[in-house]
Amino acid sequence: MLTLQCPYCGVDAEETELNAGGEAHLKRETVGSSDDDFEGYLFMRENPKGVHFERWRHSYGCGKWFLAARDTNTLEVFGTYPAQSKEPPKELRDKISAKRPGWSWREFK
Amino acid sequence: MSEPVSFLGGRVAEGAVTVRDAGLQGMITLRGDLSATKVKNVVKKITGQAIPAQRKALVEGGRGAVWMSPDELLLLVPYAEAEEGVAAIAKALKGVHHLAVNVSDARAYITVEGAGAAEVMAKNAPVDFTSAAFGTGDFRRSRLGQVAAAFWKDEAGAFHVVSFRSVGDYVFDLLRVSAEAGPVGALS
Description:
The complex is a heterodimer.
Chain A (H helix, E strand, L loop, with lengths): L2 E3 L6 E3 L4 E5 L11 H9 L7 E7 L7 E7 L5 E6 L7 H10 L10
Antiparallel strand pairs in A: 1-2, 3-4, 4-5, 5-6
Chain B lengths: L11 E2 L4 E4 L4 E7 L4 H11 L9 E4 L2 E7 L2 E6 L4 H11 L5 E5 L4 E7 L3 H6 L16 E6 L2 E7 L5 E6 L3 H13 L8
Antiparallel strand pairs in B: 1-2, 2-8, 3-6, 3-7, 4-5, 5-6, 8-11, 9-10, 10-11
């Protein structure tokens, strides 16, 4: 059972209280974007075996969206952070580096 | 003017753990910046309580403030005062970004009391109900069975459950059946 700590209400929420919201840190392409960029925004997703960043919503709790870093292979959760983050916090990236040396995910490593 | 009645109409299921309709309760949803002085003042004025800390409920005698999320409170007032409360908030927070709605009739409000009340709750929610983890005045929004619910624990160890009115029947029956089934002994 996946348990994520909601960064807004501090609850260790288990899977049944949460809803998954797909990949984190997508840049929304809109009017003026090239067709390639727009296609990437709409369809292209990471599918790693290992470190992954996702959006989750604490839908049965405080109702807030947040972001989570976890390993899709071992299901280990590295941490969660607020949805307002443009990139994973340095602290969290260091923590992942300690556990999974050489990891990379899109532009982050 | 028609007579206001609570959704569950005073239903009671007596037993070692008693599940009862808590009756009419004025409830106001307030969203906004909870650290703002004006918000603090108006909450104090209406409920007599300060802004509750994260996942806390400050309730005394049918009045109180409950922490719903970092930008949302549920204010409890006597049923007849809910409309005045909304008006008072609108006046006090004029020009401040906020939202206040009287949701008294949109909710079912249930009390679960008795020695094994925590176990009855624990059967239905993915929450740690040991008294160390969930003490007096602690509050959670979670699910009961299949539907969303919010609940807090008072000094007497009773749980106060708030759910949407449309699923009030389900929540009441769920708690009633869980209470009838008797204690498991896991939390004693």
